[in-house]
Design a protein that fits this description.
about 180 residues, alpha+beta, D-Maltodextrin-Binding Protein, domain 2, 2 domains, five-stranded antiparallel β-sheet, 7 helices, globular
Length: about 180
C-alpha cells in the first residue's frame, strides 16, 4: 500500500531508498506506486528493476536482496470507526483512511502502522485502533533484478550505505517524520 501527498509517494521505505540512491550513490531513481500484486509482477517480468518486498526462495531465483533489515514489522493493527465490520481490499492508504473517516468503510487491517499514523496525523483524523499480535515478523527488503546491469555492485553499494544510514541515525530521522 502507498500514500501520495502533493503527487509524491510518501512511504518510509521509498524515502530510505531515495536517500541512499540519490544522496549517496548518486543514482537516478524513478519511483512509482502500484498495488502489491502488480508491483510484484512488474518486477518479475522485468518491466521495473527493483522494489521492496518480503524475501522468499522463489523471489531469490531472480532477485538480489539487501543483507540488512531496513524496518521490521511486528504487529498487525486494525483501525476501525465501529464494531459492525465489512471487509474489502483497497491499495491506496489515504483512500482507505478517508473511507473509514466518512463511514464508507469500517476497518483497515495492516502491518504498516507507521504509514497509517502518518496519514491520520497529517489529515487530523480520529479513528480507533486495535493492536493484534501476529505470530511472526515480516522483513521488507530492497530487492533488485539479478539481470539489471552491475546488479551485484549496486546492491553492495546499497548495503554499505544502508549500514551507514542506520548507524548514523538517518533511518530513525526518516521514520520519525511519519510519527
Amino acid at each position: 500500500m502507498y500514500y501520495k501527498e502533493n503527487n509524491e509517494l510518501k512511504v518510509i521505505l521509498i524515502d530510505i531508498s531515495r536517500h541512499i540512491f540519490q544522496n549517496k550513490i548518486k543514482f537516478k531513481l524513478v519511483q512509482k506506486g502500484f498495488p502489491w500484486e502488480s508491483a510484484q509482477m512488474l518486477v518479475k517480468n522485468g518491466e521495473f528493476n527493483s522494489h521492496f518486498t518480503v524475501k522468499t526462495d522463489k523471489r531469490e531465483e531472480y532477485l538480489l536482496f539487501q543483507n540488512r533489515n531496513t524496518t521490521l514489522t511486528r504487529d498487525v493493527i486494525a483501525y476501525s470507526k465501529k464494531n459492525n465490520l465489512k471487509l474489502v481490499k483497497i491499495s491506496n492508504l489515504y483512500n482507505v483512511i478517508a473511507m473509514i473517516n466518512l463511514n464508507r468503510k469500517d476497518i483497515l487491517i495492516t502491518a504498516n502502522d507507521l504509514g497509517i499514523k502518518y496519514i491520520i496525523k497529517k489529515n487530523n483524523i480520529y479513528i480507533k485502533y486495535h493492536l493484534c499480535k501476529k505470530p511472526s515478523e515480516i522483513e521488507f527488503k530492497f530487492c533488485l533484478l539479478k539481470s539489471f546491469p552491475n546488479s551485484n555492485a549496486l546492491m553492495a553499494e546499497f548495503n554499505k550505505n544502508l549500514t551507514i544510514a542506520k548507524n548514523s541515525g538517518i533511518i530513525d530521522k526518516i521514520i520519525s517524520k511519519y510519527l
